Amino acid sequence: MKKSLAKLCLILVVFPMIAPIFAQAQSNSEPARQITVLADFSDRGQFEVENRLFLALEKLNLGNPNVVNTGQADGQALLKRWNLKPQDLPVLALTGAPDEESAPVLLWYWRVESVPAAIQALRAEMGLETQTALPVIRAADFSPKGVPLQAGQTVKLMLQGTSGCTATAEVGGAQNISLFEMESGLYQGEYTVQADDRTDAGITLKLTADSGTSVSRFVGHVLLQGFQAPNLQSIREVSPGEWLLTGTAPPNSLVSVEAMVTQTLIFKFRTKLDFQGSADANGQFQLRANTQDNVAGSTGNFTATATLGEATETVVQRLKFQGQPRTFQPHHPNNFDFTPWSLAGRWFHFNKPVNIRVRGFDTVVIRNEHGQETTMVVVQPNRLVSRNGQLSGRVNGDTIMWNNGTMWRRTFR
Fold first, then answer.
1. pLDDT tens per residue, the chain (413 residues)?
2. Domain end call among 169, 204, 225
3. Do 66 and 94 lie in a common domain?
4. Containing H/E element for 354?
């Protein structure tokens, strides 16, 4: 009984002495920390950084961060209270309040210049991991610049920084493009433009240490045109009857061109030429085709198609054939009067009108009473032969005897 009374007296004496200490310790304990992001939403750059920070913070599974728009009055008041300036923004911070009625206090903050670096610093501050030194990018660049690139061409990438890291790049929508460490701290790589790359692509280089920490640097834009249709430049005669077609197309692509030529000299008719070949590594091509028709000075419709893998593009252009027109010799020494022009005009078959018209220097088109037409070659001294050889005729003055047994006459009978 005496011992119990003694303990009670001791408690009554000691408790009033230590109670203020407990209360002070409780009041001085650090308030619960709240992750806070401060940015001026009227600044597009800060707004984009805030979005990237929010997505990165979600992955930490630490609850939703408190986002403060410093472009508004309450946000400006917080900046002033925490002794921060607009040039400090955007800011990633830890804030807290001793109780619900007190205004939040700034416990820690980080000026965000790199989102990965800010997240790394926050994790270290919260004791989630030991802060590791970030890799350093000393220089980063790409080439070529200022010129559009087509499918098959390459973007050269270079990064110089901390050695022993992993270097990657983003070019437009293409991600995780590998750069290789060619020598200590020097990383190089390239990206080959794809057929569907049609964009003004931003280029970002990234350096990641073995610890997982990383830094990035945006280096510029490059215009990617993807797979483009050929561009024909000129068509010229390099030898009698031989024509050279030049132009550009996606590097290493197959190029085929069909030319329909409209004669515009003494008469008007059409000739078809086919060009086949490929563009070189620089996208240049030279294709050749031959024709016996005199097309110099005429204008043609060119349908050009470029193919690379499964990609294909077609374009139609008009070009003038650059060459010296050949002088026409209307009469043959074997038969002075036997020419396409001597045959041209109306004929009769069983008193029904038929027709012959000039198509070329040595060709005519015959049209029967049914409207059917056939191209015939004028063969000295007095024969007409179709191109497939199935129809032929022998001219004797004002009559043509055909091999199918029919006869055409110049006069009506």
1. 444 544 444 444 444 544 444 344 444 455 678 899 999 999 988 998 888 888 888 877 777 888 999 999 888 988 888 888 888 899 999 888 766 677 788 888 899 988 888 888 888 788 775 556 788 899 999 999 989 888 888 999 999 999 889 999 999 989 999 999 999 999 999 999 988 888 899 999 999 987 788 899 999 999 998 888 889 999 998 887 788 999 998 888 899 999 988 654 434 567 888 999 999 988 899 999 988 677 788 888 999 998 888 888 888 999 888 887 654 444 444 454 678 888 888 999 988 999 999 887 778 899 999 999 988 888 877 888 887 778 889 998 889 999 888 999 988 87
2. 225
3. yes
4. strand 352-358
| Element at 106 (helix H, strand E) | strand 105-111
Domain's final residue, options 125, 160, 188: 125
Q: What distance lies between CA 209 and its chain's CA centroid?
A: 32
Model-level pTM? 0.41
Specify the CATH number for the domain of residue 186.
2.60.40.10
In a domain, 206, yes or no: yes
Domain that holds residue 159: 137-225
